[in-house]
Amino acid sequence: MTSKDILVLDNDECLGSFATASLMMTIYIHYITNEFNPPRGDCPLHEHYSNMVYPYMDKFVSYLEKGIARPYLKEFIQYIHQLKLEGKIKKIVMYTAAPNNYGWVTFLSKLIPTYAGVPLDFYDVILSRNHTVFRRNAYLKSLSMIDVDTSKIVMVDDSPQNIVQCNATIIPVTKYQQHVDLLEHDFIETIKESYHPLVLNTIKTDTETYSRSEIDYSSDTELLLVICQLDQLFSH
Ligand SMILES: [Mg+2]
Q1: Ligand 1 mean position to 33 CA, how many Å?
Q2: Is residue 81 domain-resident?
Q3: What domain range is 152 assigned to?
Q4: Measured between alpha carbons, how far is 129 from 122 in angstroms, rounded to an integer?
Q5: DSSP assignment of 20-80
Q6: Please, which pLDDT band fits residue 220 given cuts at 50, 70 and 90?
Q7: Is residue 68 part of a domain?
Q8: CATH code for the domain of 49
Q9: 1 domain-assigned
Q10: Is the pLDDT assigned to residue 37 strictly greater than 80?
Q11: Residue 167 gets which letter from DSSP?
Q12: Number of neighbours of residue 81 by Cβ within 10 angstroms
């Protein structure tokens, strides 16, 4: 077996159920921050947003704690960080089909390490919707974009059917769709009271537009199973 040295991680429904956390950021962008400037021209999105200061990182971390993060995400990220320190993993890639138009993907690439207590540069490469190919109603991820020798790659994803995998090793996980109502979280206290009706209306519209799972995923152990598989694959 070829030795593996690149680990690629999906985000949504794989490491967490981030849809309402992304809504929370959209609300912050609209109602409290003046620092948000969409890029002009062809500036790569991740580069554009990487120096942006996002407000209330602590509010996002506590929202992740409430169940937005998949159970054992902390242990999972810390374990991978350790493999990198030991030289068993050379490169960690975030590869998501989510768009980075509002800097959400860049933000998530900092939020996840912050939540897990590892360095902010945990991810070496960030790839988002711009790096996918839209075909047959799906955004396909092409792993040869990361390395021509795809046999060195291991990818963890809940939608393995959307990966153009070549010779990579794919670890599929079940979908994690824990819903945590934004209003159960105290983030709204950080927003000026005069904006509350608008914010509540935004949340209501979102709730009516997107169906949210009612399943309780709190006993999910998928990430522990993935740790066992990574242990085998990166044991060299
Ligand atoms: Mg996914």
Answers
A1: 28
A2: yes
A3: 6-233
A4: 20
A5: HHHHHHHHHHHHT-S---PPPTT--HHHHHTTPPPS-HHHHHHHIIIIIBPTTHHHHHHHH
A6: very high
A7: yes
A8: 3.40.50
A9: no
A10: no
A11: T
A12: 18
Name the percent of the chain lying above pLDDT 90: 70
Q: How far is the CA of 173 from the centre of ligand 1 (A)?
A: 9
CA 28–ligand 1 middle distance (angstroms): 24
Distance 12 CA to ligand 1 centre (A): 4
Helix (H, G, I), strand (E, B) or coil at 236: coil
Residue 58 lies in a domain: yes
Strands 91-95 and 125-127: parallel
| Number of domains, the chain | 1
Within 10 angstroms of residue 205's Cβ, the number of other Cβ atoms is: 11
- The rounded Å distance from CA 175 to ligand 1 centre is 7
| CB neighbours of residue 92 within 10 Å | 19
- The single residue listed with the structure tokens 């509010």 is 59
Q: Give residue 10 CA to ligand 1 midpoint distance, Å.
A: 6
